[in-house]
Backbone:
């Protein structure tokens, strides 16, 4: 590799989908350059951060007794400031290593978070070494990434189902007309599966196992769930305290996650109720577009479509829509800087 080719005199522009479950990084001119789980590994005795992202994931799997994992974001907002700074530092180190200048960062945040929560993201980015930081609403970025005509005078309805949050928004003429963010998404489904398995089978399982069976055999639709495979899961028998295993039917998984799906559908309906009559027809024709990892849950589009009576589809590459949208928005940094200086 020609190292000189990677050296840059100009400040790099980096887009970050700082998700509760995953961090995806975009570099202006290159596209997606990195994808890592949003976790850090801490030394079990001292509590120091020893690794972040992929490296942390590897350590936690290989030596579970030595390290504990911590996730810096909970329900889409910073829960642990120090860990978030470490994660962003890691991103900057990997993506702007041959740059003489600090990079510009653009980071997505859920709609409806407080000014204090927004400020925490900006401060963490600056502390991690950013030259300047810009924030973008997560569903806005998701809609751009999903290829919706957000600047047109039509109604674009987007539902981003992530790990910690579901972001629902109606976007028209490049602005958010109505929106709602709820703390019900993939993580809550995993917790619901874990609780259900413990109650029904007396087996305690880890959240990672719960997530795995959800991804493999989970269906949003109870009726459809019969078509998926049974899963054998290992855990700890609640009565004996010994390791044990049970076979989980796909209907169990579907049944366990119904309350989370119910909350998501209710929230979608509450935003649909706010659609102004002028663009209601567009929403009915264009339909609802699902993004985020939760959109990969089997039959979720079918369930939302049935409950809302609005055509619903999953976007292409739902896990990448937010960062692709941020990447598109990075082109506007000059304009955003101007706007910021006149405020
Ligand atoms: N095939 C699948 N089936 C069901 N769920 C899935 C699948 N693949 C990923 N997920 C879920 O998607 C979630 C992660 O999605 P995503 O990366 O969009 O979240 P995030 O952006 O990190 O979170 P947030 O936006 O809430 O901060 C996890 O809960 C994961 O279990
Ligand atoms: Mg997300």
Residues:
């Amino acid at each position: 590799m020609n190292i000189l080719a990677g050296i840059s005199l100009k400040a790099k522009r980096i887009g970050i989908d700082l998700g509760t479950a995953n961090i995806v990084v975009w570099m202006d001119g290159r596209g997606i350059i990195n994808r890592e789980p949003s976790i850090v590994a801490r030394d079990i005795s001292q509590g120091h951060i020893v690794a972040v992202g992929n490296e942390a994931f590897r350590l936690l799997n290989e030596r579970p007794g030595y390290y504990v994992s911590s996730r810096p974001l909970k329900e889409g907002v910073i829960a642990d400031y120090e860990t978030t700074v470490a994660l962003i530092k890691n991103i900057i180190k990997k993506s702007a290593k041959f740059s003489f200048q600090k990079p510009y960062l653009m980071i997505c945040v859920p709609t409806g978070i407080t000014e204090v929560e927004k400020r925490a993201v900006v401060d963490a980015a600056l502390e991690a070494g950013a030259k300047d930081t810009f924030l973008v609403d997560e569903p806005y970025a998701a809609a751009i990434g999903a290829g919706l005509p957000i600047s047109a005078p039509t109604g674009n309805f987007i539902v981003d189902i992530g790990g910690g949050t579901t972001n629902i928004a109606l976007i028209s003429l490049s602005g958010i007309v109505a929106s709602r963010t709820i703390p019900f998404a993939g993580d809550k489904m995993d917790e619901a599966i874990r609780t259900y398995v413990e109650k029904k089978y007396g087996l305690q399982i880890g959240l990672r196992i719960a997530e795995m069976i959800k991804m493999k055999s989970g269906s949003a639709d109870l009726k459809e769930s019969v078509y998926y495979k049974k899963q054998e899961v290992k855990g700890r028998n609640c009565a004996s305290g010994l390791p044990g295993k049970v076979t989980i039917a796909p209907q169990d998984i579907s049944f366990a996650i119904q309350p989370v799906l119910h909350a998501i559908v209710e929230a979608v309906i509450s935003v649909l109720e706010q659609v102004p009559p002028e663009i209601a027809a567009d929403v009915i024709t264009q339909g609802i577009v699902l993004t985020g990892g939760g959109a990969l849950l089997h039959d979720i589009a079918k369930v939302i479509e049935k409950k809302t009576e609005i055509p619903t589809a999953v976007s292409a590459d739902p896990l990448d829509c937010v960062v692709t949208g941020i990447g598109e928005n990075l082109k506007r940094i000059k304009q955003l800087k101007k706007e910021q200086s006149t405020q």
Summary: The two ends are 44 Å apart (CA to CA). The longest helix spans residues 250-272. The chain has two domains: 3-140+322-342, 148-314.
